[in-house]
Amino acid sequence: MPRDTLSSDQIVEAAIALLDEEGLGGLNMRALGKRLGSAATAVYWHVGSKDNLITLAGDRVWSELTLPEAPAGPDGWRAAAEALAVGVHAMLTRHPWLVQAFGAHLMFGPAKARHDDYILALHENAGFTPAEADQASAALLTFVLGNALGPAAQAALTRKLAREGDGDAEARLAEGMAQAREVASVHPRLRARLEAESGTDYGAAPQDTFTFGLHALLDGLAARLATTRR
Amino acid sequence: MPRDTLSSDQIVEAAIALLDEEGLGGLNMRALGKRLGSAATAVYWHVGSKDNLITLAGDRVWSELTLPEAPAGPDGWRAAAEALAVGVHAMLTRHPWLVQAFGAHLMFGPAKARHDDYILALHENAGFTPAEADQASAALLTFVLGNALGPAAQAALTRKLAREGDGDAEARLAEGMAQAREVASVHPRLRARLEAESGTDYGAAPQDTFTFGLHALLDGLAARLATTRR
DNA sequence: GGGGCGAATTGAACGGCGTACAAGTCCCTG
DNA sequence: CAGGGACTTGTACGCCGTTCAATTCGCCCC
């Protein structure tokens, strides 16, 4: 028999796989148990509760991010900060459920702590005062998180429609989109947007939107930094 | 008897009250029915499903925002944009559940559409190209949303601990915070932050963090605007 | 090698949830 | 007054997170 005793690592791994495939709403203990070849309740001995498991999974995902050896010096700040933000953005794109979990579970573990400390150090090394470094780091992070909310909702909705499965997975989605378009079409600018990019789905534009906003934010922070350094 | 027939307005109002008091996880159809003096299932005739109800509630809340009569001209852009962002931030503070709903429900209704169109017009009037106006509006909005995630999680956690109610509502919270501090204390910068503001709760700092980041973002957008106008 | 003990797993069960549905009640119109 | 649509109700189903007593497994010591 291939079945050995479970480990929390195995469980967290399986949970992440399930979350990536089925979304936050698709993770439930019975499905997780089946995936692990165990009874659903075996998980509880290792992780205590579903909330705990989600926190564990979130921190594990957060540890995917690779941090350069030493925080960049005063001049490398901007490139390093941008790279960091892009990395987090990519992570949230890979794991859309994470941003939903962030809104409901107060996730903070060793990997997140390491990451936070790194960003803080990066900003202090660049010349920000400690208080400014704190706020600048938070601004960067919350901007990235906010950008992930839309795609997360999109993914959740798509999955829900697919799971209802009354045969017409895409039909319902199209219907909902059409309804949204109808609501939007009352307003001139929104209608113009809709006509401009008629065939675009929700997932295409945000990438450009993200880099545009990120660059603007970095510009603003760089300006602060310039006045602080003087 | 004070019982009359329900209206969807009544239902949405009661749902918002329940959401504000108990959080997103505290809204359930039986409790809502009890609050309305009806059977739980009576709600379904009016709003169809819980998802629908949440979307309705979200749009109703979004309509709380008052938009100045006409979008500001080229010079008033910055003040108007800041005021708008601050207004949305305040709204999300009043209704922390809304940002959670945004991550799971793709909320888009008439009030949100009106608001989006208004912001778009504001940016176009200021001199942004349509494409830039789109991205700048989105950047502003996602930044505000991202800032609301932390407090939302905090509120959700507090409520959950209170509802478990094993007598020690604050004890568990303090325990969790202490645990987080222990994790954080391995890293020098985080430890410094903890020692600096030892008695601060999660809700105090974010306000300053929000205005700091917002100003930086607005600065960056203003710089874009300057180059575009020329 | 056998006995024992803690680690790990199991299946049944509980209470709460969203919601479908058939049956009922109310009220307005012709 | 008869009919029919608007509206409400109670019951029930299936899924969920979690608890718990009972059971099995694996290792260490005598």
UniProtKB/TrEMBL annotation, chains A, B:
HTH tetR-type domain span: 5-65
InterPro entries for the chain: Homeodomain-like_sf (IPR009057), HTH-type_TetR-like_transc_reg (IPR050109), HTH_TetR (IPR001647), Repressor_TetR_C (IPR004111), Tet_transcr_reg_TetR-rel_C_sf (IPR036271)
UniProt cross-references to SUPFAM superfamilies, sorted A to Z: Homeodomain-like (SSF46689), Tetracyclin repressor-like, C-terminal domain (SSF48498)
Ranges in coiled-coil conformation: none
Keyword Transcription found: yes
Record Pfam families: TetR_C_1, TetR_N
Protein name from the UniProt record: TetR/AcrR family transcriptional regulator
Organism of provenance: Streptacidiphilus pinicola
